[in-house]
Design a protein that fits this description.
4-stranded antiparallel beta sheet, Aminopeptidase, 6-stranded mixed beta sheet, 9 helices, single chain, 387 residues, 2 domains
Length: 387
Amino acid sequence: MPSVDPVALAQALIRCRSITPADDGAIAVVANAVESLGFACHRLRFEAPGAAPIENLYARLGTAAPNFCFAGHTDVVPPGDEKAWRVDPFAAKIHNDVLYGRGAADMKTAIACFIAAVARTLQHGALSSISLLITGDEEGPNINGTKRVLDWLKQKGERLDHCLVGEPTAVASAGDTIKIGRRGSMRVEITARGVQGHTAYPNRAVNPIPILASLVGRLAEEKLDSGTPHFEPSTLAFTTFDVGNPAGNVSPAEARAICNIRFNDLHTPESLVRRIDTIASQIAAQTGSEISVTSSVGGTAFVTQPGPFTDLLSGAIEDVTGEAPALSTTGGTSDARFIKDYCPVAEVGLPGATMHQVDECMPLGEIRRLTNIYAAILDAYFRNSPA
């Protein structure tokens, strides 16, 4: 069984300019690496109206249960001003034992670490099934990526028993944090409608600006909750307040504000919209205006309750690092929000301090550390898989 150098594989992936939705050969790099280890690969290209086609990969080694799945993405965000980088962001150069490049932290390197860990496990351990679910649409609209692959797996009767996502969840060093859940995220747009009029005759108009400002103030002060044992308190933050009125002597007919809500598992998107609707209706009745509320959901809150699976991950990490990892639900969203509907899921990866930044990078020592962690997780899982 061939060995895999995680650094060299990470470099090969970083050299693919796979800015969402482009693939630029990244999925092929992963497929070629795992095919050499005996995986059966399914290249899945999905398309949908109004969205770019996306390259995805599902690869599996073995047919018996349980099936341990690793999920990740090969797409990356744009590099920004490439002249601001110390090196070409897609050259994958190493300086002073640090690998530089877009995707070094988020998250091409973690994919390389997992494949290297699988190669090591196959040299000395027995297993039932290992699979990889790799998408090129995590940084994009998430229309033709992980969700479509999961639907395809369901149609094929393919079962995932547990899943590990390789997002850069660590704070200081690889494996120091396990993400056992994520807050939900939603965008809420509120529009107040009045009656346009001349500012010299305010009695003939209904100015929506103070009406909306009153609602924004109420919502900004609203305490959604005090948090839960696994989640921080939910937050509501306004991101824009727009009127679009260039005239200095006309009060507008409409004003609009947008907020983002990051919410824990005490709420659903529906319950939050009802809460906002109630306050909006009160202010609309008081002012004689019309207020409408619309929303879109990025993801709902979820948590993988601590138990046999998280204990296995924690124990394997502690065996490698000597320290027990923290369990966390902080941060933004990830594709784990889709996978949680199919099987227990957690996230373990590299430090994320430089992700999406100029000079994104990863020390080689962290790459080796994460490879060792993934190998320990695989050994523990196939020695005594959790229920």
